[in-house]
Write a structure and sequence with these properties.
This protein is an alpha+beta fold. It has eight helices and 13 strands.
């Protein structure tokens, strides 16, 4: 290879490096058309997961609430969920907790429980009184798999229920205020901000008989991680007086797909013996 050819190759390489450097922002962005492809796929991937840990925070003018649900199983040394000979999770456990107006209101635990003589699967539930003390202890013999399949769990705590409005919401229902209709894409994380159309709010109320979580909101921010739903934060404008306002976080849902360790009590000890 002669000297002139080497110089040409070096020039081409330098030009490519310069183009890449100048277009770095676009390499980290996605268009709305691309979001239309990613959006339903992210929810499909999330709803196919059997293990998840979600946290929901509501902070409205009428009330505040905080809820968590952890569907957990143990993992092996390769970080894979441990399954039995039937392919089911060998030691699935469920942990649910609710607070209302900053006071604990409900707790549930479900899984295999060690008794004095044997092991049984139970759902343990209790409420809390005004002083914050646990009351109304009760237990039901049921497996975690059966509890997850129950109407009670599905209506209040399943990931399908928690994501139902956001899956129903379409990209065409969103209004983007981002330059050139681009959104952030960093590594395995995609994040975008939007408002919803008035037509969507009306359609949602008509179809479901209740107001959307986006009702009276200013905007929302949604995030996907590893091609799955990760979080949504909904903001409203709060008037602080004197023509001063601030963005107030009125709703937040965060999801990860492996939560903290869950410990199940013994079904014949302490308060659970006669529950």
């Amino acid at each position: 290879m002669n000297k002139k050819s080497i110089v040409k190759i070096i020039s081409v390489i330098c030009s490519l490096l310069l183009i890449t450097a100048l277009s770095g922002c676009s390499l980290n962005s996605y268009s709305v058309d691309e979001l239309k492809v990613m959006y339903p796929k992210a929810f499909e991937n999330s709803l196919s997961e059997e293990l998840y840990y979600w946290k929901e925070t509501v902070n409205t003018s009428n009330h505040t609430s905080w809820r968590t649900c952890n569907v957990f199983t143990e993992i092996d040394k390769k970080y894979e969920p441990i399954r039995d000979e039937n392919g089911e999770f060998a030691n699935m456990k469920i942990d649910v907790y609710e607070e209302y107006n900053k006071k604990a209101s409900y707790k549930a635990l479900c899984g295999k429980s060690n008794g004095s003589n044997d092991v049984k699967s139970f759902l343990f539930e209790n409420n809390y009184d005004e002083s914050g003390s646990a009351v109304n202890y009760r237990k039901t013999e049921i497996t975690p798999q059966a509890y997850i399949a129950s109407a009670d769990f599905n209506s209040k705590f399943s990931l399908n229920t928690m994501l139902s409005e956001f899956e129903y919401l379409g990209v065409d229902d969103m209004i983007f205020d981002i330059d050139n209709d681009l959104m952030e894409h960093k590594g395995k994380v995609v994040k975008f901000s939007f408002t919803v159309t008035s037509e969507y709010l009306e359609r949602y109320k008509t179809e479901f008989g209740t107001a959307s979580v986006f009702e009276n909101s200013k905007y929302a921010t949604m995030e996907f991680a590893y091609d799955r739903f990760a979080s949504i934060v909904v903001y409203a404008e709060e008037n602080l007086g004197g023509n001063i306002s601030a963005d107030k976080e009125v709703y937040k849902l965060e999801v990860v797909y492996f939560g903290p360790i869950v410990n199940i009590p013994s079904y014949d000890s302490d308060v659970w013996a006669n529950a």
